[in-house]
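Sample 1 of the test manifest.
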Amino acid sequence: MTLRALTIASLLAATAVAAPLRYAEDRAPPIVNPLFTTTMSEARLAELVFEGLYTDDAQLSSIGRLATSLELAEDRMSAIVHLKPGVTWHDGETFDSADVLFTVRALKNEKTASTDRGRVAFIKQVTAIDDHTVQFTFEREEYAPEDKLHFKLLPEHVFAGTAVKRTDTFRTKPIGTGPYTVDHFNDDNSISLLQYDNYHDATRLGAITMREVADKNYQSKLLLYESLEALVRVMPRDLATLQADRKIELYPYQTNSWWYVGFQQARPPFDDARVREALTAMVDVESLLAPIGTGEVVTGPFVTSSPYYNHKVERRTLNESKSSQLLEAAGYSRSGEYWTKGGEPLTLRLTAQESLETSQDVVIALQSQLESQGVKVEPTFVGAAEWKSKVWNDRDFDAVLSQWSFDRSEDITEQFHSGGKLNFGSYRNADVDTLLEEARDTSDPQRKKSLLRDAHAAIAADAPMIFLWTLDSYSAVSRRVDNVVIHPFYYFTWSREWELR
Amino acid sequence: MRAALHCTVAVSALLTGCGDPAPPAGPTLPDTWLQAMIEEPTRFEQLLEQTPREGWIALHRNDAEDAWAAFEGPDPTVRRARARAAWEMARLHENLARIHESAEFAYLSERRERNPDEPQSIPIELARDCAQLGAGTEALGPRRALHLAARESGDPTELLARAQEPVQTGEGPVPVAWFDPCLHTTLAQIWDARALRDLDATQWSEAGAWADGGLESTLFAAWLDRIDLRKAMERGASPGSFAAQSPATRALGLPDRVPGDTRAARGEARTLDDALDAWRQRLDAEAPEAGMTLERDLGLIRRFRQEWLLARGTLALEDGHPAEALVFLDHARDVADRNVGPANSARLFALLAAARFESGRDREALDALHPLSEAHPEVLGLRERLGDLSVLRALTRTGDSKEN
């Protein structure tokens, strides 16, 4: 084929591709690998590219995606799952039992170090009965194993072994079975996805583009000027403007999220509960929240509407005399600008992500509040890679400003159990460990509620974090997009039905 | 008449501007409460002279219980206004009862399915018997007598005083504590009875006297005029959806409803917005300044919009189409205000919770119920049971959490 013919062909191909649905994320996922998904933006992207054996239907009940049926053994200790035939990976290879076995083993492999390892902990063993039938053996009785088989599957044929590395080339060349293939990581950090031609189900959007737009105000403007079709999360202060615009519709996207300032309790002086409590008593959370918009202050690790939220835990309020008493008890004195101990000022190195919505506003206001009460604050804003390295891997921080989002299980074990993979602050409380373990194991909902309310109270008393707030969360979508239904956590689960006019 | 209108007294007490004489505007929604308020604000002034002003202030801020208490007296106009407030309370509790009865049944039956050998101290059918306080509700123990007494006397005070205490059952070492699932059913019945008493009727289809009134029968309602209200009652529409198929709204060019069709529902809601936008623009140019000030201060068009969307949402729910209902209800909510107040009624949150619950979104239904906690602390029992159900349904899940 001549160069000219190639050019014409590529032009024709380009015109054949439908206009993409463009959505904005504060931060582009640097990698696309469900084994290492740690942020909501990665989870949303993974939802477009990868699939699990089961997914949620519109009523949030499990429904087969890559599985056609499941036979649960009478003793509930094993199940046989039949796989959907005719499914292919984005590189054309056939999806089969080997991929299921590989994914489970990769997740379980300690060398993989997946933060989602806990999601397959209920599986004792997985074996292939034939190319499209697998048998799972469980650690204990399972009543609805399909509810746990939602984890995304990976293609066995592109990996050398089950010890998968985060740095593997797969991270930028992901291959899934999902409705969209990653076409390109672009220079402006946007990611282009195309409808997968051989997808095993119907899908209506021809293309999707994820645009990185760190500035939330700018995101809203882009949507208003029709340079975006969807804005994943609207800043509460922009809600009224966007609701009033007749080109846009708002959809609730409440992900059980709460903000916090978390202390590194493995290092002094934040290993001293009195210091943490003193700092907590120096913060006027309401006034930090006010400029951000509508939300509600939380007293512990659940959102206020959660069945686990303990409404008896009192909100900590600004209390200068209490903070002074606590710091004096911890050996600090104040004669000059700062509280000091051994001649060293009480210093808080506060790390925040550059792209976390309005984090700069919060950090500056927090710095002002603490400095005015004698605490030296050294803020640092870091990018995604440095955050992963400093916070997730090295745990090298005094305090972090961040946000956790939970699905409807609201399982905080990984964040607050002493062995939790997401317990970056090294929080340890044997009683809380027991409460969390019992809550995870019980089959009595009322007991679970009671245990987790107790955990809320115990955690709040230890002040491992300054619990901040939960924000009202809405997604804004152009009216040109029809049939929009948003999954309450993964967002794009039902995007196959979306249609762009 | 407008020249004589030196200063309109506004419910919000913010309306202090004096209207200049203006040429009469052409009728757009003739004989509707919206048009009356905006084009003839003196009628509102007259209403405030005839009925307790505090009642309208409370009704405007969506505090129907206070409004009901404020509308005191035997005057027929006041009684019709009081019926309006009682109607609102009845619809609120009707929706809460709808959720609590279903959640109770779902929780008990799903729990039994999961643990067939577990001793059952609460009859699964209990909540299904709430309306009649049938045999199943004997498990309520002494609380049942409170229900009967409240229904008989029309006074729920004692029942409400116990609303935040669980019902205890069983004599064993670990008595089972659970909340009364019939509370909102009884409250809905009591509020309906209060409304009907003021309308000299025993059921809504006979409450045509409501439509004999003036502005007090329609103000802040989804039904735009008295004809709409009368027709809805005559055709036996459920009270919550009185205006859902309102002839008066045809003037806004709304398309016919397609039951269960979420796309059509979205189209209806958008048409409504477009029509109201256009109408507002026209009013801006033509309506008297005093009327437009009243509109701006009290958010009259916004209020009608929300009420109508709630009526449509109620109709969709009653027809068994919660997804369609959610379209209307999500449109109805003013997202800039998270609490019950002038921007969002308690009934809106209750309907949102019902539609989410019936869509399988039990956890998100809890989000919708949360704003009711302060204004209506009696929802505690419902929140607890819905929480139980939500936890039960997620027990078999593996939790997922991510940053940001």
